[in-house]
């Protein structure tokens, strides 16, 4: 679903799009199933204008777990231990610069967990539903959490995010002109596509060779 905002105050001086994707990730009984899902999702995200603000919400069937040093796609209040699907989601967020907003705020455990299931004599609580927003808009997120006690019966909780969209135009991606000889990279293709990796490797070798030639010339001139 794509929502168009025509208020000039909404996002800088020009109208812009807010892209909303509602998703349900397969439980991941096979790696192929999960890989196919993220490949399809990557294709959809890649079709949006880089100036849009894209949100992805839903049941990802993935536990991101606690943040590892250096990671920028989740906050310090995630819950659980990262599982196989969590690694797939982490790779997707890292490649497309998304941030899991409902891991950024200190909440009680009941407002972190998003899914429950009774197993024999105990109840399992997991954090597997997320609201993803662009990393460069994360400071516009005011609050995010899960809510129990909804009227509709479900083993999932309602997850909400309060997002301030008064004037985030300065945080949008800015289109940059492509200079001749520069290779424009799609990070997802760089990860999954052999031809893209080969093109990147060749371009990098040419750049390093040019750098070495410049150094040799500078040395000869001294």
TrEMBL record:
Cited Gene3D superfamilies: Endonuclease/exonuclease/phosphatase
SUPFAM superfamilies hit by this protein: DNase I-like (SSF56219)
Domain of life: Eukaryota
InterPro entries on file: Endo/exonu/phosph_ase_sf, Swc5/CFDP1/2
Protein name: Endonuclease/exonuclease/phosphatase domain-containing protein
């Amino acid at each position: 679903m794509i929502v168009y905002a025509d208020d000039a105050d909404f996002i800088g001086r020009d109208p812009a799009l807010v892209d909303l994707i509602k998703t349900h990730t397969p439980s991941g009984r096979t790696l192929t199933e999960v890989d196919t899902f993220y490949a399809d999702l990557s294709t959809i995200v890649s079709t949006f204008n880089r100036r849009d603000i894209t949100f992805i919400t839903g049941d990802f069937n993935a536990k991101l777990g606690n943040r590892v040093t250096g990671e920028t796609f989740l906050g310090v209040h995630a819950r659980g231990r990262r599982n196989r699907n969590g690694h797939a989601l982490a790779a997707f967020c890292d490649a497309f610069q998304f941030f899991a907003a409902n891991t950024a705020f200190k909440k009680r455990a009941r407002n972190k967990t998003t899914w429950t299931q009774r197993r024999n004599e105990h109840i399992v609580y997991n954090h597997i539903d997320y609201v993803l927003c662009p990393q460069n808009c994360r400071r516009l997120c005011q609050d995010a959490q899960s809510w129990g006690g909804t009227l509709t019966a479900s083993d999932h909780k309602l997850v909400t995010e309060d997002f301030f969209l008064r004037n985030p135009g300065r945080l949008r991606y800015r289109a940059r002109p492509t200079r001749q000889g520069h290779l424009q990279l799609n990070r997802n293709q760089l990860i999954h596509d052999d031809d893209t990796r080969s093109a990147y490797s060749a371009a990098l070798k040419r750049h390093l060779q040019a750098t070495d030639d410049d150094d040799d010339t500078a040395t000869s001139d001294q």
